[in-house]
Each structure stands twice: as structure tokens, then as C-alpha cells.
Amino acid sequence: MTEPESFTPTPVDVASVLLGRQVPGWDIDDIAELYGDGYVNHTGLDGPGGFETHAQWIERIGGVAEFTGMDVVAVFGDDERVCVVSSNTLRSTSGDESVTGIGLTAMRVVDGEVVENWGAYEPRIVEALVRWEGSDTD
Questions:
Q1: What is the largest CA-CA distance in the chain?
Q2: Measuring CA to CA, which residue among 28, 48, 27, 26 is closest to residue 38?
Q3: What DSSP line would sit under 46-67, residue for residue?
Q4: How far apart (Å, rounded) are the C-alpha atoms in residues 31 and 10?
Q5: What is the pTM of this model?
Q6: Do 110 and 80 touch, CB atoms closer than 8 A?
Q7: 32 to each of 14, 94, 100, 105, how far by Cα in Å?
Q8: Contact 104, 83 (CB under 8 A)
Q9: Contact 29/58 with Cβ under 8 angstroms?
């Protein structure tokens, strides 16, 4: 009997699984296994950080907003790189305001794990998050 060949998911496969787990009510533990040990998030406001920085960012955002929808517009990639374009809707935790805008995420995937990430949101999303975060501390 021959051993089955090992399967390494493509970058697009990994991004698709990751996106499938980032739905309303998701938890950071749901996606932790998809990130490599040396993961670097280049998106952080304080400069590059590892998975803990990414988790802290998600927790910080979760304090003022919740993702209520994500529609994937496009996912494409080759070799180790993948790019995701999505329409994201967030609602303030106070429930009095929501915002929708485009998000762009680029990832580098090695051996089935995300090892680097770059992301950006349309300015209206960032502005709303900053406003909501400021009103949360008043």
C-alpha cells in the first residue's frame, strides 16, 4: 500500500479558510492555527508585530466595533502570495452607527501557514474606528 501524498494548501486555499472563519461572532482562537510561528503583521499602527500583536488589535477593535458582514469581492494569488479584496461592514458596540467599506489584505503563505500580512481599510472605516474608540474612553 502506498502512502498518500501530503497535501499543502495553496495560498488561496489558506486565505479562503481564514475568511470563512472571520464571520460575526468569530474568536481569535478560531484562526490561530492558520498562522506560522514567525508570523509578522505589517499592518500595526506601532510597526510590525507578531501574532500577539494581531490578536491584541482584534481585541482592541472588538472593544468598540463588531464585524457584521464581510463579502469577498476577489481572492487571487500565486506561489506564496495571495490578495483578498472584501467589503466589510462594522457596527459600533453601542449599536448607534455602522460603516461599510473596502478592505484589502495581502498575505504571504508558506507551507500552509500565513507568515506575513499587510492590510488596509478604506479611510471611512479607519475614521469610524478611531471615533468609536475615542468615544469609548469618554
A1: 67
A2: 48
A3: TS-B-HHHHHHHHHHHHTTEEE
A4: 17
A5: 0.76
A6: yes
A7: 12, 28, 26, 17
A8: yes
A9: no
pLDDT at residue 137 is higher than 50: no
In this predicted structure, the answer to whether residue 79 has a pLDDT above a threshold of 50 is yes
User: Which parts of the chain fold into alpha helices (H)?
Assistant: 11-21, 51-62, 123-136
Cβ distance 82 to 110 under 8 Å?
Answer: no
CB 112 within 8 A of CB 105: no
State whether residue 23 is helix, strand or coil.
coil
pLDDT the model gives residue 45: 54
The one-letter amino acid code at 30 reads D
Q: State how far the Cα of 50 lies from the Cα of 32, in Å rounded to an integer.
A: 12
Question: Mapping DSSP to helix (H, G, I), strand (E, B) and coil, where does residue 90 land?
Answer: strand
Task: Answer whether 133's CB lies under 8 Å from 64's CB.
Answer: yes
**Residue 73 grid coordinates:** 469581492
| Amino acid letter, 100 | T
Measured over the CA atoms of residue 31, residue 34, residue 39 and residue 43, the dihedral's sign is: negative
What are the grid coordinates assigned to 58, written together?
Answer: 482584534
